[in-house]
DNA sequence: ATGTTC
């Protein structure tokens, strides 16, 4: 395709070259919102929340084609959305949001969730002051280095858990962890879904997925996942920051990880099945990577049951790492940690949203997009309800992270960005950056990085990502969420 | 994202 910007009549210009020969007009609705009119089988428009600078317009970047392709899915309602950190993904773009109506043949698509099912973030707020942290910093990093499992392959807080324990985790997520001593009862209050997605169906999780999962419960993994010691650098919304307990200089720990090999295997298994059964449901899609089945069907229920089990694994993962973090703080002579919030950014969920004033039960796919419920939402814990849901936005390594808050009447089914968004492939950035030099530069900037090979460090270099501050600014301007606090890293544990 | 190509 030749992608064309039609911001002002007579001022169109080409923005990229795709594969399908289709022309896409991108219409500037506001400086922070672009529209793709329905064409060639699109059932709804595409809507991209981005500044001109953040549009994914590199030559060969197919993210906007993917926004258009998602708009062709059966039962999709309102629009196919892209967040400001959108980039090219498997089937759906990363940073994509799509809602389907099961009552109108709406589908569920594994590509709309991603391989790392229930990948997400939690933020812990420490009792310790910045001065106390400084005095115990090396001891804390040493303890975390020992206690936080990470990297590819086996290893986790639970090491080799039994099949029985794994089954419990798949059914009850963080609830299992807390009930077995890996957390405090109050932790569950501040987890999305109170730590466990309902309707998990472990019977849909293959032997191979369970075997991979059994050996990794409570681990970070690799790539952009991290355990990070952070400090509140700036507060933008004083009332909300106060309610969240995020005063300037507050010490925090951010944990970003997902469902490891288990989620990956489930996605692989389910995609294989869906490609086979999809024609039987009379569904055709423009891209095999958009394989899908009706939400309200045998295979739709099977996928959602397996996905929910992986989601619970991801939540238990973050809960177990929270326990390990508390142990590290105790070992370093530092105080306790309180959970502010835990939220996924790769998930499909049934939620009630209003369409034309009417409540509808929709299947919301968020892939690289964070749920961002506004103030007063009954699904939020009482303590956070007046301000709205904390939206946790991890930055790239060595850069800031953000806490935003959900706003009333947000577009895109109450969703916001999930991070900075990659702009250079792992391969491309590894060619340009040397990991050893990067580690030195980060240390010089006051950021200690433990773990990670030079190669994996290079792959996560800040230059490979968009500027997270700019992404957050666009989220704010586009009305997706409001910035509350900016956090900067002091110490990082990476796989 | 991922026992980084079953």
UniProtKB/TrEMBL annotation:
Name the family: Belongs to the RtcB family.
- Where does the secretion signal sit in this chain? none
| Pfam families associated with the record | RtcB
Q: Which domain of life is it from?
A: Bacteria
Top EC category: ligase
Task: Recite the UniProt cofactor note for this protein.
Answer: Binds 2 manganese ions per subunit.
Q: Which cofactor does it need?
A: Mn(2+)
Q: Which reaction does it catalyse?
A: a 3'-end 3'-phospho-ribonucleotide-RNA + a 5'-end dephospho-ribonucleoside-RNA + GTP = a ribonucleotidyl-ribonucleotide-RNA + GMP + diphosphate
Q: What is its EC number?
A: 6.5.1.-
* GO molecular function ontology, one term from the record: ligase activity
How does it associate, per the subunit comment? Monomer.
* Coiled-coil intervals, chain numbering: none
The name of this protein is tRNA-splicing ligase RtcB
Q: Which UniProt keywords apply?
A: GTP-binding, Ligase, Manganese, Metal-binding, Nucleotide-binding, RNA repair
């Amino acid at each position: 395709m030749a992608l064309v910007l039609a911001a002002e009549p007579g001022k169109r210009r080409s923005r990229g070259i795709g594969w399908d020969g289709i022309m896409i007009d991108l219409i500037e609705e506001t400086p922070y919102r672009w529209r793709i009119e329905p064409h060639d089988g699109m059932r709804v428009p595409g809507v991209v929340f981005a500044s001109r600078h953040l549009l994914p317009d590199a030559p060969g970047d197919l993210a906007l084609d993917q926004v258009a392709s998602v708009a062709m899915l059966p039962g999709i309602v309102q629009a196919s959305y892209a967040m400001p950190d959108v980039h090219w993904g498997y089937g759906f773009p990363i940073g994509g949001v799509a809602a389907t109506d099961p009552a109108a043949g709406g589908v569920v698509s594994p590509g709309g969730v991603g391989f790392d099912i229930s990948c997400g973030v939690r933020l812990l707020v420490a009792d310790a002051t910045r001065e106390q942290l400084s005095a115990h910093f090396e001891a804390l990093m040493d303890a975390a280095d020992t206690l936080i499992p990470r990297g590819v392959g086996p290893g986790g807080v639970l090491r080799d858990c039994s099949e029985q324990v794994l089954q419990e985790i798949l059914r009850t997520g963080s609830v299992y962890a807390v009930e077995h001593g890996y957390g405090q009862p109050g932790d569950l209050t501040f987890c999305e879904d109170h730590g466990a997605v309902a309707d998990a169906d472990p019977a849909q999780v293959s032997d191979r997925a369970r075997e991979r999962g059994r050996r990794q419960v409570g681990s970070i993994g690799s790539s952009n996942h991290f355990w990070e010691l952070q400090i509140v650098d700036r507060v933008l919304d004083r009332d909300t920051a106060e309610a969240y307990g995020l005063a300037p200089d507050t010490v925090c720990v951010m944990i970003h990880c997902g469902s490891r090999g288990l989620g990956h295997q489930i996605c692989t298994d389910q995609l294989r099945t869906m490609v086979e059964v999809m024609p039987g449901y009379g569904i055709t899609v423009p891209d095999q990577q958009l394989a899908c089945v009706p939400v309200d069907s045998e295979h739709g229920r099977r996928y959602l049951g397996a996905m929910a089990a992986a989601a619970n694994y991801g939540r238990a993962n973050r809960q177990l790492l929270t326990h390990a973090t508390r142990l590290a703080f105790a070992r370093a002579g530092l105080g306790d940690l309180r959970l502010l919030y835990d939220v996924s950014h790769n998930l499909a969920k049934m939620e009630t949203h209003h369409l034309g004033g009417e409540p509808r039960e929709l299947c919301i796919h968020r892939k690289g997009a964070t749920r961002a419920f506004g103030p007063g939402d009954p699904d939020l814990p009482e303590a956070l309800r007046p301000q709205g849901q904390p939206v946790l936005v991890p930055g790239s390594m060595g850069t800031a992270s953000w806490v935003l808050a959900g706003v009333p009447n947000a577009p895109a089914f109450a969703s916001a960005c999930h991070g900075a968004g990659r702009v250079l492939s792992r391969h491309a950035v590894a060619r340009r950056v040397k990991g050893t030099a990067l580690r030195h530069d980060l240390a010089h900037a006051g950021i200690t990085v433990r773990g990670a090979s030079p190669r994996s460090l290079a792959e996560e270099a800040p230059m490979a990502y968009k500027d997270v501050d700019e992404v957050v600014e666009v989220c704010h301007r586009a009305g997706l969420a409001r910035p509350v606090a900016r956090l900067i890293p002091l110490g990082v544990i990476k796989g």
